[in-house]
From TrEMBL:
GO terms for cellular component: cytosolic small ribosomal subunit. Residues 428-450, 469-548 are annotated as: Disordered. It holds the Pfam family eIF2A. The lineage of its organism: Eukaryota, Viridiplantae, Chlorophyta, core chlorophytes, Trebouxiophyceae. It comes from Coccomyxa subellipsoidea (strain C-169) (Green microalga). It comes from the Eukaryota. This is Eukaryotic translation initiation factor 2A.
Amino acid sequence: MSAEGQHHDLPPQQITVRIPDVASVVSLVPKKTPLALATTKISKVPAGSLLWSEDGAYLAAMSPNAVTIYDGRNQDQVAALTLPTVVAVSFSPQNTYLTTFQRPAPGSGNAEKNLKVWDWRKGTVVMQLFQKSFSRDHWPAVAFTADETSALHLVTNAVNVYDPHNFSQGVAKKLAVKGLAGFAVSPNTAKPLLAAYVPEGKSAPGFVGIWDLNQLSKGDSPAPIARRSFFRANAAQLLWNAKGTALLALTSSDTDATNQSYYGEQKLNYLSADGKNDCIVQLKEGPVHDVQWSPSGEHFITVAGFMPAKSTVFTEACKPFFDLGSGGHNLVRWSPQGRFVAVAGFGNLPGDILFFDKKADGKLKQMGATRADNAVSLEWAPDGRSVLTATTAPRLRVDNGFQIYKYTGEKLLEQKVEVLLEARWQPAPRDTFPDRPQSPRANGSAPAAPAAAKASGYVLPHLRGSAAGASSSGNFSLGHDPNDSRGRIGVNAHHKTLVPGAPAPDTKTASKNAKRRQRAKAKGGDGQASEDGAEPAAQVKSVTEGVSALTTAEPQAQEDSGADAAKRLRNLQKKLRQVQQLKEKQAGGAALEPEQLQKIASEAGLLQEISMLEGQT
């Protein structure tokens, strides 16, 4: 793109820009000075929405009553479909079909087939169905396998599967599961897999399952290859890796059981496609802001936790591998080649962007940093050498425009636009641009990261300006955790992976267990202790006694000071989260120890004491 590393035999990189009711495609002109723009054939085309095909070969421009398709290489118009009240379009993976959704006319009922699959080159409809409403989260409503041998559509309690070569025969096979709310098809062609999600019911947990698409029929559905159940989840986002060997299920609920987040809570669940491994991904406490698989499917990165959020790299097998540190971040993006990573904080955050280089040994080294003020989006260029950020309406009505930053943080271009609705790169096939390391000239010349504003803790009015007030101000910052450290995630002596932000192992309990085992061995016992550190004889303690002791005990908060009450409240909330985790294990069919059952039975007492303490702090 810039003079650095320009390959003249590679295609030009283009940006799609959309302003109210008009769209343009502009090319980048590389110069020794900062980049310049040149308008292409598609200039001032009426469009209320734009969509590129996955490989950038075609561009669909939607106006209120038509869809116009352009060739992405020479910008010539290649097709036009007249479609009143069209709302959304989607290309199939190999660009053979185009799926469209039209807003149904009032009072038309299901007689109007408003969901259509087109052979758009011929201008003919090959399948049409009725769909009552449109949901961006479930679009495209008709999903194709990567080789386009199957087309899938979600209906009540089932996913219907069609043969694209013979849509007229109707449903070829289906996955029938009561309460089915969403699905996702794996991208691999050798063995296409179907992941489906069922939210929790009145008394039953929700779950995600994985099925072999080739094993489905018109009859009863087979058992899933893999399955994971969970509570406190009424929505899920299903994310396959590029190889179709692993699935991430980002579940969310409208409420937070710990009352720490107004926006509810999110959990990230992992399932291997062979059914041999499923678990909850251990993350820093708080919301899951973003998660993204690498293009190779061998790693994924999470940005999670209350601010400052923690960014962590995991392996394909869901093992935490590298700690990218914490900061005011809520977004992560891999470059198309999987070499570079951008971690950023947009929206209500300042707009800081960190750029990392993934080395051959898997470690990630920071290359540069910058700040994109007021940016709301970030996207890597197809060649993986720069990112495009944009400030768009209606999110922001001022300072609209787009910028291009090099992977070192250097600003290459800034373009102001009075009202900008969209700016994004034209995609390119994966192998179009080579995977190149950073330039030797750029290595080590990255600008320093913007300094985060120093934040002080809240100080009571009567202590402000005093030494006591200064000492109580704390060192917490939304921009950085001073106790945080980056680097490769280690393993402790017991070979348990240390997860950043997760509760530390209880070394005191482990030490006590070791001493108990030594004493038991000296007395001729087997030296075994329970999981929670209790002696075997102590495990027979009545669960009823434990509940009674908790519910009748006088809350300590009445005698504690304000600081002690806050500490007590945090401890109780931690115990409550442990109870919720045990209940999830129990719902998943795991056998629990008596001590663990006693912990579950203590939930009512914990909630009672938490309620009393919250009234005092």
